[in-house]
Design a protein that fits this description.
Length: about 575
């Protein structure tokens, strides 16, 4: 109770009016999008008609939820510069790979979801495992966004947390049920600009209060963790390894390759935005366009977390207590770093913009999870295994009912997130369970035509089980890795186990005929199936490979000059 009172934001009528105005826009977009929904493809994939710049901003905004805002600011408060690895090592390369290499297969094969791609490549065994695990993961991650969204309403209005969570769920549910993916995507574009408008002033005002960049550096050096927080490599505190080589290996292989590629290239939450475009070239550009703002997001997310840890008395005290005793638990947590900073540095008016930005972030994240869930549930589970060959309107109704069911389920999973002092620990654990083995199966199956359907589902199950086993070893203190090191190791283990099991099972089972692999395996796919016929006539700024090359040069430069 005392913590809730100390964190209560001193919002004025102006702040409440700005938040209310934002909600009016959100619901209005849902109502407008509803007019365009006449079929299941309209509801689930926006009729495959949206331009690349819209889907590119939505692609990055869909990820700009709890992971990005609260999770990365919490990481910034706890670790400092090593958090940049989640962007410059753990996101951009995988996003570019998705656009250049993998999107032609997704879009060219005309699949409606990532699990559907799995069904065509490996059959129903791998498909069912993937669809079920994806559905569970989306409910859990939607719960994270919902919990944090409810926390904001709790802080703003003083409502009990459970009331705040339910109200937050109803707001998101209203516009997704009305307008489907189009409502989610157009709201995500609005939310991107609202989030930037909220976090940029917070960063600038916070830096000014800390005495500028030089003043902040001095405070950080004098704080627990010291100067290591101003160096991104070797990132020992983040990885949990005291050995520098093992730390770098864990970050590059565990985070930069397995977790990153597993998340960005196989996560239907992101891929769904690209599938909503009008052509292969536009689908390829979607993650590449998203990579440009993604590079600079840490400057307005990680830096405020670092400022909060040295400028806000409650956060500085909490960090000192955690440094003295890693098992310390109090009413404060790293997840509150951004809220405390907003309370301390933003004046009325700007506070309303900040609150709208946080609400936008969590709504974008939750809406992305729910819109991906309802597609997979309707197409990949209900239509495939429960009710086949029904009229299109039937599946549209199922999608809307699935949206309601997923939101109710997320309310119950929301409170799991409250048990973690740093929300990124929870999220990286989930990604190591579900995304790491899926990426191994995908990448092997896409480039090795001999891989069999039996190997597809066996590898997925074995990889997921091995990640859970590593997690349990760390939970029961058989092994001891601090930070997010346990997730990096679990992801790496899941990837290797999946590959090994898939290769072994392939030796004893029958592959699919080569004729059935066109559009699914690189060597069996004609070039015309994975390229846009109009690609050569596009101007340079619309050519995916060139845009990806420029982005890669920029992110390498950021790693060298900042890291």
């Amino acid at each position: 109770m005392l913590a809730a009172e100390s964190l209560r934001l001193d919002a004025s009528a102006v702040d409440f009016a700005l938040v209310a105005l934002y909600f009016v826009f959100v619901i209005g977009i849902g109502l407008l999008a509803r007019q365009r929904v006449s079929s299941s493809i309209d509801f689930f994939l926006s009729g495959r008609s949206l331009p690349a710049w819209v889907t590119g901003l939505a692609f990055i905004s869909a990820n700009l939820g709890a992971v990005e805002i609260m999770g990365m600011s919490a990481n910034g408060a706890e670790y400092g510069f090593p958090t940049f690895h989640y962007f410059w090592i753990g996101a951009i390369p995988a996003m570019l790979f998705l656009g250049v290499v993998m999107m032609p297969f997704y879009y060219g094969s005309k699949v409606r979801s990532v699990p559907e791609f799995m069904r065509r490549r490996f059959g129903t065994g791998a498909h069912l495992v993937n669809a079920l695990s994806f559905a569970v993961a989306q409910i859990l991650i939607a719960g994270v966004n919902l919990y944090l969204l409810g926390t904001i309403l709790n802080v703003l209005l003083g409502w009990p947390l459970w009331v705040s969570v339910v109200v937050a769920a109803v707001i998101v549910l209203s516009y997704i049920t009305l307008g489907g993916l189009s409502a989610a995507i157009y709201n995500e574009v609005l939310q991107f600009f609202v989030i930037v408008a909220a976090l940029l002033p917070l960063t600038l005002v916070g830096l000014h209060k800390a005495g500028g960049w030089s003043g902040l550096k001095e405070r950080i050096i004098d704080s627990p963790g010291g100067a290591a927080q101003l160096e991104s490599w070797p990132g020992n505190e983040l990885s949990g390894f005291s050995n520098n080589f093992l730390s770098i290996l864990g970050i590059v292989f565990g985070l930069g390759f397995v977790l990153s590629f597993g998340y960005w290239t196989t996560n239907f939450v992101e891929v769904q935005r690209a599938l909503a475009t009008h052509s292969i070239s536009a689908a390829r550009r979607t993650p590449i366009i998203g990579a440009y703002p993604k590079m600079f997001i840490p400057l307005i997310v990680v830096i405020p977390g670092m400022i909060s840890a040295v400028l806000v008395p409650e956060m500085a005290e909490y960090k000192a207590q955690r440094a003295a005793n890693p098992d310390f638990t109090g009413d404060t947590s790293y997840n509150q770093a951004l809220l405390y900073l907003m309370k301390d540095v933003l004046p009325n008016g700007l506070l309303g913009v900040g609150l709208a930005g946080l609400l936008a972030a969590f709504m974008a994240g939750m809406a992305a999870n729910i819109s991906a869930f309802n597609t997979v549930f309707s197409y990949d589970l209900w239509q495939q295994y429960v009710k086949k060959d029904r009229p299109d309107g039937y599946y549209l109704r199922i999608g809307r009912l699935a949206t309601i069911g997923a939101t109710v389920a997320a309310i119950f999973t929301a409170f799991i997130a409250g048990n973690f002092a740093n929300i990124m620990d929870y999220l990286q654990t989930l990604f190591s369970f579900f995304n790491a083995p899926l990426f191994a199966t995908f990448i092997l199956g896409m480039f090795w035509k001999r891989m069999t359907p039996a190997a597809g589902w066996a590898g997925l199950v074995a990889g997921t089980a091995s990640a859970i086993f590593v997690f349990l070893l760390n939970e029961f203190e058989v092994t001891s890795l601090s930070g997010q090191g346990a997730s990096f190791v679990a992801a790496g283990t899941a990837f290797v186990v999946d590959i090994v099991v898939s290769v072994v099972v392939t030796q004893f089972t029958a592959p699919k005929p080569a004729a059935e692999l066109a559009g699914l395996v690189y060597s069996e796919t004609p070039k015309e199936m994975r390229t846009d016929p109009d690609a050569d006539s596009l101007p340079w700024y619309q050519r995916p490979v060139l845009l990806a090359g420029i982005a890669l040069v920029l992110v390498i430069a950021l790693n060298i000059f900042v890291g």
